[in-house]
Design goal:
Strand content: 15-25%
Largest sheet: 8 strands, mixed
Shape: globular
Oligomer: single chain
Structural class: alpha+beta
């Protein structure tokens, strides 16, 4: 019976080309827009190389310190200092791995001076420690990360990407041990990694350096021992250990504030936060409103899926009026309302699947050709792409089967309801009225 319904649906699709085209195009556009949004957030949230540990990663990026007695306080807000790393975070017990990244003013605009004197060009650098490569397991094409000894000694060594290696030396292998000038200082290459996409904001760089190459990496900010320019990343085993880590950090805050209540107080708010929360919570000092975020996405889905479904419902209602005579004939030969509704449902399903394929292809085209805009359009504080950096969109980003299936199923449900409601209403008319309808 289903095979017969599909054959009938295919025949009707060819007979009513305008209706079928509009239906498929409307469904495809709704799915494409929803897929674009879903993939954009999938890339931000899902485990994608090299950020494959996102589900078990937590971040601490901001610190607030109040100094002075009550009524005459000075408030400072920045990140944490080198001393805070050594005293508070590196020794934490409830983390598999702890890494720090230095937000350096000196290296924020870094330039390489090629040996052939072809002209300086800018590169994106990241100042970190060896633990960074355990939290973000890059694929090393050759060599290895810089070591704890390199970090302690301030050795000018670095890990670079294969893309930068090809630009500098023409090859991606056989360059370990070679040097080049960065900001007019010679650095020796200790490893080459498979480059991450620029969309992986937590891990992306073209050059990875020990943070100790910064001259004043030990210096605090504003004269406060624990205020500095380091952000901290934690890797935990599971949610239970994540909760234990948060409790441990809160205990650090409690103890420090009890030790010198009249001198200064430290505040980390609800940090460290999970990767998921960090995507939707742009300012850690403000309480995260989960339901406001949920309402926002429900509204977006309403616009992207429900509005097109209502438009399609109107088209189907008009089409059903034109098919009443056909339905009346089928009723007179004993077809029940259930059988007629089943036929309408299968016709709708065939058109929706065709629209789904169109929507998927259209979404891929949009994501690839407009990638510099699409992946930032939903951000409150979008970053501009650095000059010379190409946003790489890998297959694992574009092809997310679960995302497509979820969007398609939601669209099928809405489209089926938009088809069955007008069909059920039309089929309630008496058979004599249906037979008297003009074709």
């Amino acid at each position: 019976m289903i095979h017969l319904y599909l054959k009938q649906a295919w025949a009707l699709l060819k007979q009513n080309k305008l209706f079928s085209t509009l239906y498929i195009a409307g469904t495809g556009l709704a799915i494409a827009m929803t897929m674009v949004m879903a993939i954009a957030y999938y890339v931000k949230i899902a485990p994608v190389y090299p950020e494959v540990n996102r589900l078990n990663t937590l971040y601490l990026t901001n610190c607030r310190i109040e100094q002075g007695p009550e009524g005459n306080k000075s408030v400072y807000q920045w990140a944490v200092s080198y001393k805070a790393l050594q005293d508070w975070f590196y020794p934490t017990r409830n983390a598999l791995c702890v890494s720090a990244q230095l937000n350096s003013g000196t290296f924020s605009d870094s330039y390489i001076q090629p040996a052939d004197r072809s002209g300086d060009f800018s590169v994106k650098t990241k100042l970190t420690d060896p633990a960074f490569f355990r939290i973000y397991p890059f694929r090393f094409l050759e060599g290895k990360p810089f070591t704890a000894s390199d970090l302690a000694g301030g050795i000018c060594t670095e890990v670079i990407t294969d893309e930068l290696s090809r630009r500098l030396f023409g090859v991606s292998k056989g360059v370990v041990g070679r040097s080049f000038r960065l900001n007019y200082t010679d650095y020796r290459i200790c490893g080459v990694v498979d480059a991450a996409s620029y969309l992986m904001q937590r891990s992306y760089a073209q050059v990875y350096l020990p943070y100790s190459v910064e001259a004043d990496y030990r210096e605090p900010k504003y004269g406060m021992d624990y205020l500095g320019a380091y952000s901290v990343t934690f890797l935990v085993k599971d949610n239970e250990q994540a909760d234990a880590l948060k409790a441990e950090v809160k205990d650090i805050v409690r103890k420090e504030n009890l030790m010198h209540p009249d001198e200064w107080k430290v505040e980390f708010w609800e940090q460290p936060v999970s990767h998921l929360v960090s995507i939707f919570h742009s300012f850690v000092g403000k309480e995260f409103d989960v339901w406001a975020t949920v309402r926002y996405f429900l509204l977006v889905l309403l616009v992207l899926l429900l509005v097109p479904a209502l438009n399609l419902s109107g088209m189907i209602a008009s089409r059903m009026e034109n098919r009443l005579a056909e339905m009346g004939v089928r009723k007179s030969f004993g077809a029940g309302r259930r059988a007629l509704l089943s036929q309408v449902m299968w016709e709708n399903l065939l058109l929706t699947l065709a629209g789904g394929i169109l929507g998927l292809v259209l979404a891929w085209v949009i994501m690839y050709t407009m990638r510099e805009w699409v992946f930032n359009v939903f951000d409150k504080w979008p970053d501009s792409v650095p000059q010379g950096v190409d946003i790489t969109v890998s297959g694992e980003m574009l092809f997310a089967p679960l995302v497509f299936v979820a969007v398609l199923l939601l669209c099928i449900v809405l489209n089926t309801l938009s088809a069955l409601v007008p069909a059920w209403h039309s089929l309630r008319k008496p058979i004599i009225n249906a037979l008297n309808e003009k074709r």
